[in-house]
Every structure is written in C-alpha cells, then in structure tokens.
C-alpha cells in the first residue's frame, strides 16, 4: 500500500471515528431542552363599568275602589190608621204608569186586603168592602145551548187588563213590599180575632185555594132563576166563590193567574218565618 493511500485511509478512519464519537456524544447527552416559553403576556383587565343607580320602578297604580254607597235611610212604617196613602202608592208601584189606579180602592187599604185574603182562604169572595174594583161591564151572555144562555168568551176579555197587570208585577218587589208591610198586615189580621193563626199562614192558604180551582168544560151553560145568573151544572154551582171567579175570568186568564200565584207562593215559603 502506498504512503498516499495509507494517509487517505488514516484520514478517512479519523473522520469515521470522529463522526462516531460526535454521534455518541450527542446521543448520550440527549437533545438540548427547548428554551422555556416566555410567560404569557397578562391580558389587560377591563375597566369596571361605572355604577349606575337605577330609580326604583313605580308600583302600578290601582284604581281606588269606589266608595260604598251611603245606606238608604230606613223608611218609617206608618201607623195602621194613617197607612192608606203609602200602602196604595206601594201597590200602584207594581205596575207602570199607575195602571193599577183604577182597580185599587183608596181607603182602608191594609184592612180590606187582609179581610179579602182571609175570606179567600175559606174559598169565599167578599161581597162588600172589597179592596179592588170589579170590571164595570155587565156579564156578556150568548143565546145558545140547552138553556139558551151561555157564558160568552167575550166576557173573559173584561178581565184581561187586571190579569195582565197582576201577571206583570215583579215578584221580588212584591215580596219586599209584603215584608215591609207585614207588621201592619199582621196587626189588621189580629183585629179579626184569629189568634191561633198568622196572616202568613192565611195568605198561603188563600193561594192554595185559588190554585185548586178546576177548569170548566167550555162552553159554560147558565141559568137565571132570579136576578143573578148561575151555572147550569150543579157541580159548578156548588164550587166556592174563589173557584167560580177563576172560571168566570176564562181559562187563559186563570192559567196566567195561577202561574203568578205559584211564583208568589214559592217566594213566600222561602222567606224567613214571620212573627205573628
């Protein structure tokens, strides 16, 4: 081997040794640790928002409640002997425009109504001192039938006006007036000497009598043995006076009267018990 080749081999070996040694150094030492990252820059803190003082929201305004109406002054109850004007005015108030004026008598109003109700409770009609005026027209008779005399249906029209007014009267108002006047009604009833009953009981009895009135078969035959007409049917003629009146006013009017009487009876029975 020539000297030049030997020198080249030696140099080459030195390079290889150096490379191996350098690799071993780096291998044994390990890779250098990376430089520590700089600390993160502190983020600027936001400036606190200025405090704003809010005014409290006003509470919703509620409408002030309307003041309660002043109680009506208590109406004085007039003495029995001085009660005619007030009692009649109250009765007239049950129909518009004073339409009951022609039917209601102006004197001894409370006493006459008490007497009429008491008679009706026994099934009878008062012949005198009635608290109401009867229709002025005479009985209308039609010449027909076995007896030659029939009660004309036109006769029923004489009672249309008072029956209509009676049926139209407000039941609640009528009961309020009845309760207001009851002490005087009871006083007038006491004058009749029937201490074992109350006027309330007698009034309800009178209503029951009217409600029990039968409906007569039409047409109704009449006879006239003397001045007054009578029913030709003996069974009808034996009926109490209240039932005869309910027949004379006609079936339609009688039905309207009974309907109103049932409403009044229900309201009377629902009332607190009345003192005698």
From TrEMBL:
Compositionally biased residues, Pro residues: 33-49, 66-79
InterPro entries tied to this protein: DUF3014
Coiled-coil stretches noted in the UniProt entry, renumbered to this chain: none
Transmembrane domains' residue ranges: 9-28
Pfam families named in the record: DUF3014
Region named Disordered: 32-82
Keyword Glycosyltransferase: no
Keywords assigned: Membrane, Transmembrane, Transmembrane helix
Keyword Membrane: yes
Low complexity bias locations: 50-65
The protein's name: DUF3014 domain-containing protein
Organism: Microbulbifer aestuariivivens
